[in-house]
Write a structure and sequence with these properties.
Order of helices and strands: HHH
Distance between the termini: 69 Å
Radius of gyration: 25 Å
Number of domains: 2
Largest sheet: none
Structural class: mainly alpha
Number of strands: 0
Strand content: under 5%
Number of helices: 3
Length: 90
């Protein structure tokens, strides 16, 4: 990489400002990517993606891949409540 030569402090300040904005933009892209990745790691998405990948191999795969998210949306809160009741001793 060749060293840049500047003829004034204004050029240096301008270059630093550009680098600062690029750094902030990269940081915001990273934060957005982490947020989207976090959102995609729900049990429903993981199972749906897994079933979707194997829907051609699973018998009635199209029906299973359609029904799985619905079933999971109902089953996961039920299981959470069941564990919470067991923990409380009810």
């Amino acid at each position: 990489m060749e060293t840049k030569k500047y003829s004034s402090y204004a050029q240096i300040d301008r270059e630093l400002e550009i680098l600062k904005i690029e750094k902030e933009l990269s940081y915001q892209k990273l934060v957005f990517g982490v947020k989207k990745t976090k959102e995609s790691f729900t049990p429903q998405n993981i199972v749906s993606d897994l079933i979707g990948s194997y829907s051609s191999v699973i018998p009635y795969g199209a029906i299973v891949s359609t029904a799985a998210p619905f079933i999971l949306n109902k089953a996961i809160p039920f299981i959470k409540n069941w564990f919470a009741k067991r923990k409380r001793g009810v």
